[in-house]
Amino acid sequence: MLVNLRRSVVLSVLFLAICGLAYPLAGTGLSQLLFHHQANGSLTPYGSTLIGQTWQGPEWFQGRPDGTVLTTGPGGVVVSGTNQPGPRSKSLEQAVARQAAALKKEGVVPTNDLVTTSGSLVDPDISPADAYAQVDAVAAARGLPIAAVRRLVSSHIHTKELGFLGEDYVDVLELNVALGHLH
Amino acid sequence: MGFFWTIVVLVILLGVSWRYLGSYMAAVYEGRVRYLWWVERPIYRVLGVDPEAEQSWQRYAGALVVFSGVAILVTYLLLRVQGLLPLDPQHLGAVSPALSWNTAVSFATNTNWQNYAGESTMSYLSQMVALAVQQFVSASVGIAVAVALVRGFARKSSPTVGNFWVDLVRGVLYILLPIAFSAGLVFVGQGAVQTLAGPVTTHNALTGAKQVIPRGPVGFMEAIKELGTNGGGFFNANGAHPFEDPTALTQFLSVFLVLAIPFSLTYTFGKMVGNRRQGVALAAAMVIIFGTWVGFTSYAESQPNPAVAAAHAVSQPQGNMVGKEVRFGPLSTSLYNVASTQTSTGSVSGANDSFTPMGGFGLLTGMMLGEVTPGGVGSGLYTILLFALVAVFLGGLMVGRTPEYLGKKIQAREVKLAALGVLVMPVTVLVLTAIAVSIHAGRAGPGNAGPHGFTEILYAFTSQANNNGSAFAGLNGNTAFYNVAGSIAMLLGRFAIIVPVLALAGVLAAKSVVPAGLGTFRTDTPLFTGLLVAVILIVGGLTFFPAVSLGPVVEALSHGRLF
Questions:
Q1: What pLDDT is stored for residue B555 in this prediction?
Q2: A80, A85, A161 ranked by CB distance to B247: nearest
Q3: pLDDT in tens, A11-45
Q4: Nearest chain A Cα distance for residue B141, angstroms
Q5: Cβ–Cβ of B63/A7 closer than 8 Å?
Q6: How do the residues of chain B divide into helix, strand and coil, expressed in percent and rounded to 5?
Q7: Best exposed site among A145, B2, B380, B543 by fewest CB in 10 Å?
Q8: Is-contact B287 B295, C-beta < 8 A?
């Protein structure tokens, strides 16, 4: 019993050093060396391409309505993944109706992703269909030709990884930054 | 079409790892691989362990229980003094006693149930040295138990089942660390963060919007979270968070990592008992049930979400997108979540709570089958071997002959131990759920009303007693009642099964082998696989049918259609 206890304590300390310090610190060093941009959060002057933002107004492409329920924690950090409604929840039904009405007011035909919140609540992406649904409204708000905005969307579609994994998507930040530079 | 190829490539990759990772693991536990001997030897010397000396099952179990107890205590203390330790850029301070206790038990039992949001509760140091360490260690403990049981079958008249300290150290050094490190680099390369620099404040030059984005040493924790079938994510949103699973490629890699060791251990089993077909029979049972559940759940999730449909505002061409990420979509999210609920991982790629009623049914019932298809690392193999013993016992009753499994006579003592191991989980789940719905503190937990709220409670205890750790996120579990009741479920679900399994290992190892005769019921045939599948489904189905009827089934039927 005592010998087990001594061995357990010693081995816990050893594993703490190997798996808790050496492993993540070696990983951090190598990641910072090889993948500096990704390891620090894929940051751009406009925010992280991997973390969704709220875009106010019809002159921007809208992402998923995650911002309507997103909360913040100590120091104002974004806390992901809270508030997941059940599949028969009345409040979900009302939130969808509210979001759809808001989109219609901006001249956008509501789509599934644009009225529902994601699992992370920081989903940075929308589907190509969601982006195309907003083309007319964005073009009108900015006084741009519809065809040019449409071309912008189609040139920003990320197709499935390796051709078969996941779904096609458009990164809203990338699309809006390109839109901001379009004249 | 994309999903079809996802499945095809997954099957090919798992087939390759089944063969090669399986035989590698056999070599590791038979002591034939020694390239890390220069790291191992000093460890044994410091511990005062003779790596050649073996232990009886009692000594093996004693060492395991004491080690796990110390692991819980160390984790608890690290969380309690978090505020005094470095690498706490958000100044989060100490974790409360009840939550520290629940979390310590949760990570040391390979459950990774999380009653907290990582980004607003745990410092970087806690994530690294308290939580991720247990993700390695508890996984290695699980595999060690499975290997000890396999030795019980493989040996003849042996008083010992192996050396716990050696199995534990070798599992971490030879299997978990090298694979996790390679996978960690892929996660980071795809966009998972890996930094100690603290949260970053971004200002959008176009809109002026400001965000404070939490970061941390995430990518490498992600790798062991999946490989060790742990599931405890760095962030609250777990695998749905783009900093944990940035692309569909890392999502696919995650699915592969959680399935790799549990499936491959059936090959290890076959190789160590000297008959690979025995391993194939177990793997086939796992594949049949797992495949059925993937098909069922992904079909359910490709259907519309009932609440969204009721708003009559949009069509839902892809299916249920509530709580799901656009880059993943409903199909691969279902694959991930089924893989994670049936491997005792419990990580999520989309919110379980927002799955359709039948999709949620798929996740819940996947765990209720006892986490054997393929189950957690090690725990999947040792639990399905318990079911295999029950199956040969039933086969023996049918033909009126003392059953045998791998040449060992299965007598009253073995059947009692197997039945005990199989029944611990359902009894724990049902009793604790009954208590929770009977008292005020329990009923205060669920965030949804009616049958969905009942499902949230049932799900919580099913998840913890199976050491799964996934949550129907709607339940507020960070209360004194749920922290303590949950820790009881996790401890029973882990050690009340491990101890009978090790006893079984000892009893079997001591037996001699009887040669197979004409009347021997063969256990390496499709007939046996079919019987095993039936036993798993009947035990799970009969025990949980009434409880499941009150939850997801009522919920699904209440809108007039099943899907």
A1: 81
A2: A161
A3: 999 999 999 999 999 999 999 999 999 999 999 99
A4: 13
A5: yes
A6: 65, 5, 30
A7: A145
A8: no
Decide if pLDDT at B562 tops 70: no
Distances (CA, A) of B87 to A72, B97, B368: 21, 21, 39
Query: From CA B255, how far away is CA B232, in angstroms rounded?
Result: 15
Domain spans, chain B:
16-199+212-274
**CA angle at residue A45 from A39 to A48, to 5 degrees?**
45
Buried b (16+ CB within 10 A) or exposed e, B307-345: bbbbbebbebebbbbbbbbbbbbbbbbbbbbbbbbbbbb
Maximum Cα–Cα distance across chain B? 81
* Cα-based distances in Å from A173 to A55, A125, B379: 9, 8, 43
Residue B499 has pLDDT above 90, yes or no: yes
Q: How many CB pairs under 8 A join A and B?
A: 388
B210-260 confidence digits (pLDDT tens): 999 999 999 999 999 999 999 999 999 999 999 999 999 999 999 999 999
**Cα B331 to Cα B320: distance, rounded to the nearest angstrom:** 10
In this structure, what token pair is assigned to residue B525? 């045939």
Cβ–Cβ below 8 Å for A18 and B314: no
CA–CA distance, B344 with B262 (Å, rounded to integer): 10
- Answer whether A50's CB lies under 8 Å from B243's CB: yes
Strands A47-48 and B210-213: unpaired
Task: Please answer yes or no on whether A54 and B209 come within 8 Å at the CB atom.
Answer: yes
Q: How far is A147 from chain B (nearest CA, A)?
A: 23
Structure tokens at A40: 């620090």
Q: List Cα–Cα distances, B517 to B155, B157, B407, B501, B513, in angstroms.
A: 19, 20, 10, 27, 12
Helical pair B57-80 and B133-154, crossing angle rounded to 10 deg:
170
- Alpha-carbon torsion B1, B2, B6, B9, what sign? positive
ipTM of the complex: 0.96
Peptide bond connecting A58 to the previous residue in cis, omega within 30 degrees of 0: no
Shortest distance between the Cα of B52 and any Cα of chain A, in A, equals 17
Q: In terms of pTM, does the model score above 0.90?
A: yes
φ and ψ at residue A136, rounded to 5 degrees = -60, -45
Q: Maximum CA pair distance of chain A?
A: 79
Give the whole-angstrom CA distance, residue B485 versus residue A150: 55
- Please state, in angstroms and as integers, the Cα–Cα distance from residue B258 to each residue in A50, B52, B102, B337, following that order: 24, 32, 23, 11
In whole angstroms, give the CA distance from residue A156 to residue A175.
6
Q: Please answer yes or no on whether A24 and B206 come within 8 Å at the CB atom.
A: no
Contacts of B76 (CB under 8 A, 6+ apart): B100, B101, B104
Give the confidence band of B563 by pLDDT, cuts at 50, 70, 90. Answer: low
Cα B191 to Cα A88: distance, rounded to the nearest angstrom? 35
Place of tokens 């009969």: B542
* Lookup: tokens for B91: 């100044």
**């019987």: which residue's tokens?**
B531
Average pLDDT, chain B: 94
B55 forms beta bridges with B162
CB–CB contact B117 A73 (8 Å) = yes
CA angle B191, B336, B376 (to 5 degrees): 105
Q: Is-contact B406 B523, C-beta < 8 A?
A: yes
- Listed in sequence order, the DSSP H helices in B33-132 are 37-47, 57-80, 97-108, 124-125
